[in-house]
Design goal:
By secondary structure, the protein is mainly alpha-helical. It has helices spanning about 1-10, 20-25, 25-65, 70-90, 115-125, 135-150, 160-175, 180-190, 195-220, 235-265, 270-290, 300-305, 315-335, 340-360, 365-380, 385-390, 400-415. Helices cover about 70% and strands about 0% of the residues.
Length: about 425
């Protein structure tokens, strides 16, 4: 994502001699976009949660069927594929481009595409496929911000609005503008720019802060998994994270290598009303193997997974990690609209808990953080966001030193290798 953001943010072109005259007019647009982006994210999430409660609670209870019985999971995931396939088939712009070809963000679509994109996203989130809301919400917010910004403030550069929307949505998703600042600063590294780095971050940071504060005031989100407190790191902890993070990276790279082949298999069906129901059926069968915690985007599920780590064996955690990874691979390949960050967090956490169950001397906090770090590095190739996400899962400042060390061997494994993103011709992006 942030490659486009880095090029778009007009503050990067601010003259060093008079940055205030360039930056001050950006504050109000940034705040407005930040609040609006957060509200759209909260609306989509809220509707999806209510629909999920009806589909996975009220409806099976009324029918006298187990909420997470094998039959209900297969029926619901297949039906979700049918409904999303219908939206992709009939909605203007087919609910956006093929999600397998997108990174964290993409070029803003036409406003006419946004309703179909959001409807497909809400159905996906409620129905159980293993994807998060980040990609489609960023696209929708960028499209709406660009469309409204050009009409209400035509004097500002058109490239400003998508950049603000991307930063605002990331801030809203993570509940903090730090994530947006890290993504943008990572993209700016090594790029020629005029002015100081914080000139470039000024407007996106304001938008990210507004988005994060709005989300915090309305929804009170938290990423802390409530794991056992982690004290000063020991040498054994260092060794553990140096092993777990690369293992997570290798597991993620296995999915990245398989991604073009799985996508090609679903593409042979040549129609969303075939590919998406087929993907839903496979996801339902995977859910039957891994259990209901391997369904959905994974954020609430990973908290439940970590609440009582002693209740499962290392083998059970490992099976859940592999099943969730397969579900992410299928959902991202067959055409469901969604992102890959939140499912990757679940996979990495399950891997870390498997390591803790296998070797109880390894504390769960660093094990989970290292697993998440390795998995995210392989799937997203975003170093700062991977470090940040892994760290916020564990409320311990001392974990950062361990994660910085663990990121080094994991990064050596993933750098230069294909990403979990495809070009329009189906080849992997490097």
């Amino acid at each position: 994502m942030a490659q486009d953001t880095a090029q778009q943010a007009p503050a990067a072109r601010a003259a060093p001699s008079a940055p205030a005259r360039v930056l001050l007019p950006l504050i109000l647009p940034a705040l407005v976009v930040g609040v609006g982006s957060s509200l759209l994210f909260l609306l989509v999430s809220g509707v999806a949660e209510r629909l999920q409660g009806a589909l996975w609670g009220d409806l099976p209870d009324a029918l006298g069927i187990g909420r997470y019985s094998v039959a209900w999971m297969v029926v619901m995931l297949t039906a979700t594929g049918v409904l999303v396939g219908l939206v992709v088939w009939k909605a203007p712009g087919h609910a956006g481009p093929d999600p397998a070809t997108l990174g964290l963000a993409a070029a803003p679509p036409s406003p006419a595409v946004v309703p179909g994109l959001l409807l497909a996203t809400m159905l996906m989130l409620a129905g159980g496929p293993s994807l998060g809301p980040e990609n489609p919400i960023i696209m929708a917010n960028a499209a709406l911000a660009l469309w409204l910004g050009r009409r209400l403030r035509p004097g500002l550069p058109g490239s400003l609005w998508p950049a603000l929307a991307e930063a605002a949505t990331i801030g809203a998703l993570f509940g903090t503008p730090v994530a947006a600042a890290l993504v943008i600063s990572e993209a700016l590294a090594g790029r020629p720019m005029k002015g100081a780095l914080w000139d470039s971050l000024f407007a996106p940071l304001a938008a990210g802060a507004a988005g994060a504060m709005t989300t915090g005031l309305v929804a009170h989100p938290t990423f802390d998994l409530g794991l056992s407190p982690f004290g000063p790191p020991r040498w054994g902890d260092t060794l553990a994270v140096l092993v777990i993070a690369p293992v997570g990276a290798l597991l993620g790279l296995a999915a990245v290598q398989a991604f073009p082949y799985v996508h090609r298999a679903f593409a042979r069906l040549r129609h969303p009303m075939l590919a998406l129901p087929a993907g839903g059926l496979v996801l339902g069968l995977l859910g039957a193997v891994g259990g209901h915690l391997t369904l959905f985007k994974g954020l609430s599920e990973v908290a439940e997974l970590a609440r009582h780590p002693e209740d499962r064996t290392a083998g059970q955690f490992a099976v859940m990690a592999v099943v969730k990874l397969a579900a992410l691979l299928v959902a991202a390949s067959c055409g469901f609209r969604g992102g890959r960050i939140f499912p990757s967090v679940f996979i990495g956490a399950a891997l870390g808990l498997a390591a803790h169950a296998l070797v109880p001397a390894v504390p769960p906090a660093p094990a989970v953080a290292a697993g998440v770090l390795g998995m995210l590095l392989a799937i997203t190739r975003q170093g700062w966001v991977s470090l940040f996400t892994a760290a916020v899962l564990v409320s311990s400042p001392t974990i950062l030193s361990l994660l910085c060390l663990a990121s080094l061997p994991a990064w050596l494994l993933v750098t230069g290798r294909p990403q979990m993103q495809l070009r329009p011709d189906g080849t992997a992006v490097r």
